[in-house]
Amino acid sequence: MWELLNDNDKDNYRLLMTNFASLSEAFSQKASDEEAVAPIVNSKFQETAFQKAFNAVAEDIANTSFDVSINLSDGQKFLVGIKSFGITSGDQKIAQFKAISREDNWDSLINKAIANLRYIPREDSDNDVDPKNYEEHYLALAQKIAEVRNDRIASSKALAKGFDGSADDIEMIYHVLMPTKKGTTPKIYVGETDYVPIDIENIKILDPMNKPQNFKFTDGIHVYKYTSADSQLLMAFNNREIVVDSWEVEYVDNVFKFFQNLHMYAFEEVDVQPTESVSWMIPNVNGKVEENSGYNAFDGGPKMSKQDNYRERRIKKIIQKFQGIIPITELNFIRQALEFILLSDHKSADEKAEMKKKRSELKDLVIYLGNDELKKDIFSIVYRPVSEMYIPIPNSKTFHLENPDFFGKSIGTFKGNSSKLALPKEERTFTLEFLPSGNQIEAYINQDNGKSIQSIANQGILGEWILREVFQLEEYEPLTVKRLNELGINAVRLSKYEKNPEVIYFEFIWIDEHKPPKDAIGWVSNVNHES
Questions:
Q1: What stretch of H or E contains 340?
Q2: Residues 243, 250: contact at Cβ < 8 Å?
Q3: What pLDDT, on the 0 to 100 scale, is given for residue 418?
Q4: Phi/psi at 247 (5° precision)
């Protein structure tokens, strides 16, 4: 079902759920500052959000087996069971049979099965316990459970018959949201699995459980567990195997301040359908994150002036400053490394690679020496500012020429046929809001061909948040594809909404490069035309 749903509706649903989950820290009493809390998915809110996002009809009345129903634009219909549980959770309740279990005395079958499990026949025993195999009693009860369960499903399908067509044409499915556990990167997984009647003819009893009053069985499609104490039927959802999508969750900064000021917000319906959007991959067509620029701008070559022997004088000053403090052997290595990095030309790719290798060796030595003053002086001249970064726009000039007003009136226009932007910096500004936190910065389009999105006040504002908090990188650690894969992020999306046209909404997303979204630009957009 998930792949058939409208992409805008799915974005709407994701926004509702991740925004709710972004408040999770307010409801966690025991998590430490260093340990991420688990995202909260409220089941009632989930059902309401699902209905709102997909124009679904509530079905969880009159003891129906489903929560909502959906009519797709092509006439296809789904009855949906909505559930939420942790990604690492076990079996989940899908039905309860308190009344019928008492009325039909299901406990008698459980007791007979338990007695047979414990029965040890002896020649001198006059025990009148039926020695038949315990599986027969469990099987008899499993068949009763299946019959009741299937009857409920059939009834619910009949109630759905009025939507369109016959009940046999309506498909059934479980839709689940599965948040990550405490202490891991906050994320919500979307799952889907078959919602089908139990195949009574193929029921098999599985090995006895530690508590024989409970038992498991399978019909070859799903594995079920019945617990006699509360007459519940549970099912194994095979959580990791049913994932069809995943959403990153970012917690609201100072969530208690958010609640304190909640009364100041105007409570009106929010337009969650973007009027325009664009997305692109962070890695390049070769599957690598660009070196020296964009998210790795700090890793570029030093910008220090070469005039009037300025670099030579800086090196000399550092060596003199730490004479007698740093051992002579290490200080000589530092001097030689600085001279190679700062005084030699590194024009070819091989030369640049050699410079970075030497710089890495120097970095390791400086960190090993443990002198903070030395580290500050060395790193400040061999690297660019540690949190310097910008958000690169792929094929930027083409994008701006085709969308000159995306970031604001005429922001994407150029001087003649040049690569220079036409408007001055102060007229190329806009508000950039990060989803789902709602944090905002004032940003502008900059550099040749308008290739970068940068924060106005200080590039470090953007860099500290994205590099340290989003990508969780250490200082001077480059962003790599491996890290993106670990975090489940490989792309960004910018969106605009009618009610706030002056704001550009930014979010990190995951793009399946084999099935890129319709709003994709850059190299990944060509995939649609290659298959």
A1: helix 328-343
A2: no
A3: 93
A4: -125, 135
What pLDDT score does 179 carry? 93
CA 520/CA 513 separation, integer angstroms: 10
Rounded CA-CA distance 172/193 in Å is 9
Q: Could you identify the residue written with the tokens 């950039």?
A: 432
Q: What is the mean pLDDT of the chain?
A: 83
Q: What's the distance, CA 219 to chain centroid?
A: 34
Q: What are phi and psi of 51, to 5 degrees?
A: -60, -45
pLDDT grade for 517, boundaries at 50, 70 and 90 = very high
- Look up residue 336 and give its amino acid: Q
Work out the angle at residue 364's Cα, subtended by the Cα atoms of residues 358 and 366, and round it to the nearest 5 degrees. 100
Q: How far apart are the C-alpha atoms of 82 and 1, rounded to whole Å?
A: 13
Average pLDDT of span 338-367 = 89
pLDDT exceeding 90 applies to what percent of the chain?
39
**Two structure tokens written together for 435:** 């989803």
CA distance 497 to 516: 22
Q: Express as a percent the part of the chain with pLDDT over 70.
A: 86
Alpha carbons 313 and 380: distance in angstroms, whole number: 15
Convert the pLDDT of each residue in 109-136 to its tens digit: 888 877 776 654 444 444 444 445 678 8
Pull the structure tokens for residue 528. Answer: 């649609």
Q: Is the dihedral of CA 489, 491, 497, 502 positive or negative?
A: positive
Extract the runs of DSSP E, i.e. beta strands, from 435-479.
Answer: 440-446, 452-455
Q: Which residues pair with 454 in a beta bridge?
A: 444
Q: CA geometry: angle at 529 spanning 526 and 531, to 5°?
A: 115
Token pair of 193, please?
A: 């699995």
pLDDT digits (tens, 9 = 90+) for 138-194: 888 899 899 888 887 776 676 565 434 444 567 899 999 999 988 888 999 999 999
- Interacting residues of 424 by C-beta distance below 8 A, sequence separation 6+: none
pTM: 0.50
Residue with tokens 């369109």: 164
Q: What SS3 class is residue 502?
A: strand
Tokens 């220079």 found at:
420
> In the chain, what are the domain boundaries?
2-264, 276-292+388-529, 301-382
Query: Residue written as tokens 């701006």?
Result: 400
State pLDDT tens for residues 387-403: 888 899 999 999 999 99
Distance CA 249, CA 504 (A): 19
**Please, are residues 186 and 92 in contact by the beta-carbon 8 Å criterion?**
no
Contacts of 275 (CB under 8 A, 6+ apart): 496, 497, 498, 501
DSSP reduced 3-state for 204: strand
| Six-digit token string for 208 | 């006895």
Torsion-angle region of 309 (φ positive above 0: left; ψ -120 to 50: alpha; else: beta)? left
Q: Are 188 and 246 in contact (CB under 8 A)?
A: yes
Neighbours of 243 (CB within 10 A): 15
